[in-house]
Amino acid sequence: MASLTLHEWHRQLGATFATVNGCEVVASYGDPIAEHDALRRSATVFDLSFRGRLCVLGADRERFLNGQVTNDVKALRTGEGCYAALVTAKGKLDSDLYVYRLAEECLLDFEPGYAAAVAQRLDRYIIADDVRVADASPNCGLLSVQGPKAAEAVHRFAPDIALPEKPLAFTTATDSALGELYLMNQPRVGLPGFDLFVPTATLAVAAERLTAAAKALGGRAAGWQALEWARVEAGVPRFGADMDESISRPKPASKRARSVTAKAATLARK
To answer: For the domain 53-135, what is the CATH superfamily, name and number?
Structure first.
């Protein structure tokens, strides 16, 4: 199992842990109902460093990716991103992912447990291209703040960083204590939200600061359970749960899945 870099930090906050696709996640900090409520009314902080992160480098990176995924990567400008599916020659899904165009590379963000498969899938089609695929997860962690007060939490966390306005757009900043930061406008559960890519060496400091910013607004740190409830409620499909390699396009979370999740949340509140 791939453990979280901040495992001990989470444990000291009272976290319980679970496994998703062979990767360790924070299940909750003891009260997933309260975490879900905070997500709905304020801002919650998630450590999403378990997700897959790859960098695609080389002069042909945009052209190459454009031929591998379902969205128009070549149309992206630096500071923009898109959602896409990585597909087989027959149009079947290998993975879904977010593609961000950085100044000298493309950053891919996708579901946990698929990093090796996605890297191998991309490597298989690199023939005469100036392209290299590298695992970004050892170098950067991923924190996410979601909820109606997410923007305010980011401002408290880093007052000088510019908030990207469009979904999947991003800004960069250099913080004296944290290093180079990438802030993505990423509403993951139908609410305002931002992802923050942080150097691994300063991830604990960033998590502490971002959580403190959320708490000042009535929010808190939250885990996978609350995130999954909110995702299903919003009808956002997840690769490996609501769609997989057997289908040729994403489908919304099923009515039964939404019903089961809503019922579980109702029972937990009793």
So the answer is: Aminomethyltransferase beta-barrel domains (3.30.70.1400)
